């Protein structure tokens, strides 16, 4: 745990480094890892010093809350909370996602069908604004406008230095049922039932996600947290987790391994690096089988284009990166999945049901204007990560533009951690442009922080 005095010193250093950035120069965080997939212009100024803002300040097992610094990774946070039998309400699937990043840039996981998105479990946070001030932001009060607009602002309104989040119990063991569906409509009906009752076939469901391999082969993974003893599987060695869905109808993992079940092979993307080949897997150190290592390899490829040059030498067509997560209303999810399977032809895809968190007491669910989803509406987050060949007559970006168009047609939304191609008018309509500008003008009147459209679309 970090001492409060150390936290205060780290915030002072952050503000000092912010003041050292000359007006007109881009403001960036000086951090070692990133889970973004959009290339950006190289910074011309030193990044903000966040070196002292990566820890857990306090876990309160009675109140079930944690005070966490903004650059703390979920890996470190989970290590601290599991010691008390607790977990954050939503734990994004990759270890090095930071709490501040998941709140300002969104995150999702298998508890989202009942707990919503990570920012919905935040009760207060401290934000470094574009004016260089630290403000404490809560759902009500003087800075309620920043609280509502901070999610999906991607650092364009400020950076979180401290967050207080809610926690929930997790069992020492997680029992899984892998339920296969040959019709996507039946899968949607099952999601609807579990979301409404939080149970399936008489058993409580604490977490739910799934995978579509083809439109006639899809799985829901229904997880139940328990402290009962029993055997558990290990997918950090030779076995690969996503393949188990086809091989087992029942399974179990430790609570720790369940939270990071996707990280070892970055879902299934480790295959692109040969890490799933039995021979390579035996010699690839287990400590390097994790998402941040694979992401470093991707960044090296973006920089040096070695694979692209080899493809050209072999006469292969150039490829378009298609790395997206989209939210589709549950009633239209089957339509999107069939369209995607026929038009994009990329499999598998991840399925993660989502509903905005319902309030504990009287009143309607809170709205989040920069990522407006309908309260009470069931959605499915569909994640797909890879590349497709650029066909004759097409240009790089055409497939992503088609996906954006189809998502909008179906009343959905897409996350902004990767490539986006919207024009400004459409972007503002989809991502709360009027609200963003009002909050921007209040907290960053000189517009020192890069704008949301510039970050997400113009890659500034």
UniProtKB/TrEMBL annotation:
<keyword id="KW-0560">Oxidoreductase</keyword>
<keyword id="KW-0812">Transmembrane</keyword>
<keyword id="KW-0274">FAD</keyword>
<feature type="domain" description="FAD-binding PCMH-type">
    <location>
        <begin position="1"/>
        <end position="170"/>
    </location>
</feature>
<dbReference type="GO" id="GO:0050614">
    <property type="term" value="F:Delta24-sterol reductase activity"/>
</dbReference>
<dbReference type="GO" id="GO:0071949">
    <property type="term" value="F:FAD binding"/>
</dbReference>
<dbReference type="GO" id="GO:0016020">
    <property type="term" value="C:membrane"/>
</dbReference>
<dbReference type="InterPro" id="IPR016164">
    <property type="entry name" value="FAD-linked_Oxase-like_C"/>
</dbReference>
<keyword id="KW-0472">Membrane</keyword>
<keyword id="KW-0285">Flavoprotein</keyword>
<dbReference type="InterPro" id="IPR016169">
    <property type="entry name" value="FAD-bd_PCMH_sub2"/>
</dbReference>
<dbReference type="InterPro" id="IPR006094">
    <property type="entry name" value="Oxid_FAD_bind_N"/>
</dbReference>
<dbReference type="InterPro" id="IPR036318">
    <property type="entry name" value="FAD-bd_PCMH-like_sf"/>
</dbReference>
<dbReference type="InterPro" id="IPR040165">
    <property type="entry name" value="Diminuto-like"/>
</dbReference>
<protein>
    <recommendedName>
        <fullName>Delta(24)-sterol reductase</fullName>
        <ecNumber>1.3.1.72</ecNumber>
    </recommendedName>
</protein>
<dbReference type="InterPro" id="IPR016166">
    <property type="entry name" value="FAD-bd_PCMH"/>
</dbReference>
<keyword id="KW-1133">Transmembrane helix</keyword>
<dbReference type="Pfam" id="PF01565">
    <property type="entry name" value="FAD_binding_4"/>
</dbReference>
């Amino acid at each position: 745990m970090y001492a409060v005095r150390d936290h205060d010193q780290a915030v002072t250093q952050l503000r000092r480094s912010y003041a050292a950035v000359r007006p007109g120069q881009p403001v960036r965080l000086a951090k070692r890892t990133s889970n973004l997939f959009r290339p950006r212009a190289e910074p011309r100024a030193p990044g903000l010093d966040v070196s002292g803002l990566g820890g857990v300040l306090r876990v309160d097992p009675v109140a079930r809350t944690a005070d966490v610094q903004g650059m703390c990774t979920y890996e470190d946070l989970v290590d601290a909370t599991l010691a008390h039998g607790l977990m954050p309400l939503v734990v994004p699937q990759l270890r090095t996602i930071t709490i501040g990043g998941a709140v300002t840039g969104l995150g999702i996981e298998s508890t989202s069908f009942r707990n919503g998105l990570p920012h919905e479990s935040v009760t207060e946070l401290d934000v470094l604004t574009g004016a260089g001030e630290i403000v404490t932001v809560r759902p009500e009060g003087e800075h309620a406008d920043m609280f509502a607009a901070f999610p999906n602002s991607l650092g364009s309104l400020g950076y979180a230095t401290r967050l207080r989040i809610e926690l929930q119990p997790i069992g020492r063991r997680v029992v899984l049922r892998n339920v296969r569906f040959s019709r996507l409509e039946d899968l949607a009906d099952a999601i609807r039932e579990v979301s409404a009752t939080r149970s399936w076939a008489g058993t409580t469901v604490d977490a739910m996600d799934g995978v579509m391999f083809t439109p006639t082969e899809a799985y829901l993974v229904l997880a139940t947290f328990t402290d009962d003893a029993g055997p558990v599987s290990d997918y950090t060695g030779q076995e690969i987790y996503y393949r188990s869905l086809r091989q087992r109808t029942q399974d179990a993992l430790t609570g720790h391994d369940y939270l990071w079940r996707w990280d070892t092979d970055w879902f299934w993307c480790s295959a692109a690096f040969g890490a799933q080949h039995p021979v390579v897997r035996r010699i690839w150190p287990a400590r390097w089988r994790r998402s941040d290592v694979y992401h470093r390899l991707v960044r090296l490829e973006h920089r040096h284009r070695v694979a692209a040059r080899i493809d050209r030498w072999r006469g292969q067509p150039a490829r378009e990166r298609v790395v997206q997560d989209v939210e589709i209303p549950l009633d239209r999810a089957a339509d999107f999945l069939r369209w995607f399977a026929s038009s994009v032809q990329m499999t598998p895809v991840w399925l993660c049901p989502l509903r905005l968190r319902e309030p504990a007491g009287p009143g309607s669910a809170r709205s989040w204007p920069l990522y407006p989803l309908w309260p009470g509406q069931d959605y499915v987050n569909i994640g797909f990560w890879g590349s497709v060949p650029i066909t004759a007559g097409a240009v790089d970006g055409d497939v992503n533009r088609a996906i954006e168009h189809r998502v909008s047609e179906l009343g959905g939304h897409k996350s902004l951690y990767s490539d986006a191609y919207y024009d400004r008018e459409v972007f503002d309509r989809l991502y709360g442009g009027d609200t963003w500008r009002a909050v921007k003008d209040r907290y960053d009147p000189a517009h020192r922080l890069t704008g949301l459209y510039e970050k997400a679309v113009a890659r500034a």
